Fold this sequence. Notes:
The chain is α/β, with parallel strands linked by helices. Helix content is 50%, strand content 20%. The chain is built from four helices and three strands, in the order E-H-E-H-H-E-H. A three-stranded parallel sheet has the order 2-1-3, sandwiched between helices. It starts with a strand and ends with a helix. The model has no long low-confidence stretch (mean pLDDT 78).
Amino acid sequence: MRVLTVHTYYQQPGGEDRGFAAEAALPRERGHEVVDLSFRNRDLEAFAPWRQAEVTLWNREVYRRVREAMRVLLAHTRYQQPGGKLPFMRAGLDYNEREIA
């Protein structure tokens, strides 16, 4: 089975990062193929304030990357960067609708 893991790293490494690594290791240890998709909060610093606000509401790059990675059977996510959760869910819905249609 192919498993997609999605995580956003904070600027300071912490327990959530370790939890994500441990959770991603479980399916690998059982012989499943794991596709890691990660984002970094510090990437927002490169944006102008208006762009930071825009991607907080809807992040097209997150949507595009998740949509490309959705050729998996199971997806697992923890925290998503601002504007990341809705594109993640929408990409999954869009992919599933395409597969069913």
